[in-house]
């Protein structure tokens, strides 16, 4: 981690820079963004279409192998291919397409308004809670519901309740069932209880979730096992294993990008009168990168570059590796913390945060 310490959450993001330097910092990031937008073209389109073709090939190969999975080698190969296909579909395709990163291509196959992913939560519900709420109010207590997903306490500014003592157990249970947790979270039952969401709206969202869930469950646990005939049971178990692996991986990447101990959180007072430069700064301070090679970054949806993703959520994900050194250099220039580290360290640090805030106190 580069650790030129910035102010803690006792100070609003950007105040140590002063107004002029804060806006200069924001302008330099805007310049990076404009350059990438101007450079988007055939190579980027080729990249996302290659990932899509690879994902579809892996899924088809996995499905075919599981159709004859009475043979253990076929089961292992089919389950592995299907798990990787689901990870690619969820992380590098679904997450990034739904951010609108590829809308500029004008291709319905990669457009945020037409994509529906292989995930329990409907795309529109996820775009509301993730794109709008989380990316706007990143790590602002009581505004960003992703800060602990309602059930976890991840900041000393969040009120402690006795139920938080069990949050290490919550995460152990959540990880293998992550898509279920996100789907239920996207229904916003807490917002209904608080009066911020009507029962009618909740009922409509619940109907959409149930419809999507039925299709997902029928596909993986009824249709394909039946098509496998004598291999129905191992096929079903292969699908279950692939979904579980995808959930564990997604949970790990998300928690490592948002909750390591050096990631900062903020209160609503910190964002009063927030400028563009201060918004950028909050995104950077509220995120963490995960170091790894090219394959790791593709499988993580390029969310190993979580800092760059939060600063530029709608830029093509394959560009994050290119601009990350420039963003890091800017942070060093302005004395801003840039939290980065290998997967094992970030994962351990995230667990440290879960354990630390499970007990009372800041």
UniProtKB/TrEMBL annotation:
It comes from the Bacteria. Residues 1-11 have a biased composition (Polar residues). Residues 1-20 are annotated as: Disordered. CDD domains: Delta6-FADS-like (cd03506). Residues 74-340 form the Fatty acid desaturase domain. InterPro entries: FA_desaturase_dom, Fatty_acid_desaturase. This is Acyl-CoA desaturase. It comes from Streptomyces stramineus. The lineage of its organism: Bacteria, Bacillati, Actinomycetota, Actinomycetes, Kitasatosporales.
């Amino acid at each position: 981690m580069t650790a030129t310490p910035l102010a803690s959450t006792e100070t609003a993001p950007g105040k140590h820079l002063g107004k002029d330097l804060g806006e200069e910092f924001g302008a330099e990031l805007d310049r990076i963004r404009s350059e990438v937008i101007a450079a988007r073209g055939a190579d980027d389109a080729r990249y996302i279409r290659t990932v899509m073709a690879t994902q579809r090939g892996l899924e088809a190969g996995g499905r075919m192998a599981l159709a004859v999975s009475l043979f253990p080698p076929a089961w292992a190969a089919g389950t592995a291919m299907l798990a990787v296909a689901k990870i690619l579909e969820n992380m590098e395709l679904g997450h990034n397409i739904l951010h609108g990163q590829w809308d500029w291509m004008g291709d319905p196959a990669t457009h945020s308004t037409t994509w529906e992913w292989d995930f329990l939560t409907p795309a529109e519900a996820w775009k509301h809670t993730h794109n709008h709420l989380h990316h706007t109010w990143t790590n602002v207590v009581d505004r960003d519901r992703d800060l602990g997903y309602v059930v976890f306490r991840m900041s000393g500014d969040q009120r402690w309740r006795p139920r938080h003592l069990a949050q290490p157990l919550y995460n152990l249970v959540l990880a293998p069932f992550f898509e279920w947790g996100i789907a239920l979270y996207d229904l916003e039952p807490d917002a209904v209880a608080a009066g911020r969401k009507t029962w009618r709206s909740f009922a409509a969202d619940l109907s959409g979730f149930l419809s999507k869930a039925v299709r997902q469950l029928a596909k993986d646990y009824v249709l394909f096992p039946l098509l496998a005939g004598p291999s129905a049971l191992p096929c079903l178990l292969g699908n279950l294993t692939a979904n579980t692996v995808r959930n564990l991986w997604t949970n790990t990447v998300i928690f490592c990008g948002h909750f390591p101990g050096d990631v900062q959180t903020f209160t609503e007072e910190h964002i009063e009168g927030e400028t563009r430069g201060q918004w950028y700064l909050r995104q950077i301070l509220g995120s963490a990168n995960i170091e790894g090679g090219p394959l790791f970054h593709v499988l993580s949806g390029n969310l190993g570059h979580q800092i760059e993703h939060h600063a530029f959520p709608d830029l093509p994900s394959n560009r994050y590796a290119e601009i990350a050194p420039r963003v890091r250099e800017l942070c060093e220039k302005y004395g801003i913390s840039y939290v980065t580290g290998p997967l094992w360290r970030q994962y351990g640090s995230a667990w440290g945060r879960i354990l630390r805030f499970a007990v009372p106190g800041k």
